[in-house]
Amino acid sequence: MNNPLDSLNPQQQQAVTAGPGPVLVLAGPGSGKTRVLTQRITYLINSLGVRPYNILAVTFTNKAAREMEVRISGMTGEQTQWLTLGTFHSICARILRREAGDLPFNSNFVIFDQDDQISLVKLALKELNLDDKRFRPMGVHEAISNAKNELILPDAFTIQSYRDETVQRVYKRYQELLLANNALDFDDLLLWTAFLLEEKSAAREKYAHRYEHILVDEFQDTNFAQYTLLKHISSFHRNIFVVGDTDQSIYGWRGADYRNVLRFEKDYPDSQTVLLEQNYRSTQSILDVATAIIDRNPYRTPKRLFTERGEGRKAIVSESYDDHTEAAFVVESIVKSVSAKLAQPGDFAVMYRTNAQSRVLEEAFLAVNMPYKLVGAQRFYGRREIKDIIAFLRLVHNPDDEISLTRIINIPPRGIGDKTFYSLRAAAGRLGCSSGAVLLQLAKKGEVPELESLSPRSKSSLGQISRLLADWYSSKSRLSPLGLMDRILNDVDYHFYIDDGTDEGHERWENVMELRRLAAEYPEDGLVDFLEQVALVSDQDTLESNSNVPTLLTLHAAKGLEFPVVFIVGLNEGLLPHSRSFDDPEAMMEERRLMYVGITRAMDRLYLVFSQNRRAYGFTEPVNPSRFLADIPYHLLEEINPTNPNRYSRSQLENHPERWHVSNTSSVKMEEVQQHFHPGMRVLHPSWGEGMVLNSRVQDRDEIVDIFFENLGMKKVVASLANLEIKT
DNA sequence: ATGGACAATGTTTTT
DNA sequence: CATTGTCCAT
Fold this sequence. Notes:
The protein is α/β, with parallel strands linked by helices. It contains 28 helices and 24 strands. The chain binds a DNA duplex through α4, α8 and α18.
């Protein structure tokens, strides 16, 4: 029988069979890390006899988890349903439902999405009489979210300004409101799980003992809460296997911290490190472009990406007049390649920095009648009609969900306005329960004394919705998610309400039908799962691979995917890099990594597309090409004629190596770096203590210092980040 | 309570 | 510009 390990290269084999103990796999793009993870789990089960029940694997998307499960079950023939496999958020949700007895919410909590979270912040602001102009809900929420990702509870919130003090008050109230709603937000899933494992030793021991082996994908995109969580769960067996690539860290704005990779090495000094540098995806010229981009980031250990796939074709750079010509160029290129039988429609992906950019592209595809798929669950689940239906379901599942009640209490319009709803909430306040509970009580008893002061009209309206709610509530255990949904749609005549005869109305109803199809996949008792799935879907989860049409997606959504031909469009200053990152070097580095991620998705061909003009705020303005283009050596690029040369005057720049530099703005000008450290110097590192400088060199606009520490041995340190002190 | 008209206001990425 | 909020008339 042939050994599955034979198909792996030596480094991959080393990773798969590494251990016991902590293992860090630094995996460049396309280096087969998914295969390594899958093989590793298979190896644990088949060769080491580990039971699937004792394995925990964290993937970045639910889709990746499902795919992995299929492959593992094929290779092991084991009962893979016993594996714990999923995203951080879904795994935490599962744990919290199981352990809710130890926690201040009950197990049928709902998960609040972004919109719900903002609504709740608004509510908290209102309750505290704060001006939402001065304290923008989004901004306040971001601060709260950041704190949660750092496991900072309201009481520990650092106060350095009046604003901080206010945020702290809102944060406190926000958390109270969540609990009152029996709801958790995304961050809570991590926060409460970390709390559970930290504070409840019985729970910690249970999970730490159970999970003999822990595997984590995309480790560079974990945040502190996730890191802490892992630390607790792995505290007993210490068999923690993490795979990541700091160069592909693109979720810093969400609290992800690629320094967790460094933290890992520090917290697990006995960890084994495996480097995967061979790329199986791209041609060498694509890798060269990628390397040219990422090499400009100072804070990184240089990696040598190589491939045996050969040189391949040069990357194509194309300049267009504006975003419309840009889109036309993309579509035309695809049409040409397809009709020349050089590629299939499904081979193409078009990537962009912001979702808004997809519209122009969609129009261009529509114009030539070419079907496409757009990655983005957000777009579907964010639609009004979908949110309505989900709100109904969520409310039936958990009547304390005030946000959902607020959404649907007057849908379709049944004469309940602000005033009536306010009275209902006031009654709930006096009774010490939620508005939903009051409604259920009203339906049950026919009257609630606290509501007697209302006008007969309002009372009858409330009575109507309360009877509906009570009816659904009492039948929910007998109905499948689909059955319940149909019941609701029918009872409120949602079709009549949403489909007003216009094209848009029709489309909205179609979306409801689509949601119906999704609900149909859940069994009798699947409401929790359905709602959880809906709350935690990632954009990629909805991506189907069987349609053979071009894919449109953001660069973020492209993570982990690959395509034969990749277009990156909108390569202009302000868009990529995005203008919001101009004055923040960290953010700028992340933009660069984003570009790197995009490039390295390409297997055979890469198109880099930018334009001369772009509309912003409704006006078309001239824009500069992205500074990142200037970083690519000209010999790696091939320029092709723009779609329609007559539409604009050709760029005044001629074909010489410096041409991109000419119009390039330089808003972040990095200074020349002076060498401060020399061999023999003694230095003090904030966490590693005292050490001696062995070597130092200026590289990539930063100084890299090799230091020898007594207990740790030789470490490479980046001077600008390490905060080294020179001992005299 | 509701719907429409107008004004302001704000713009990344997503579990 | 495109969405969201606010004001006003019904």
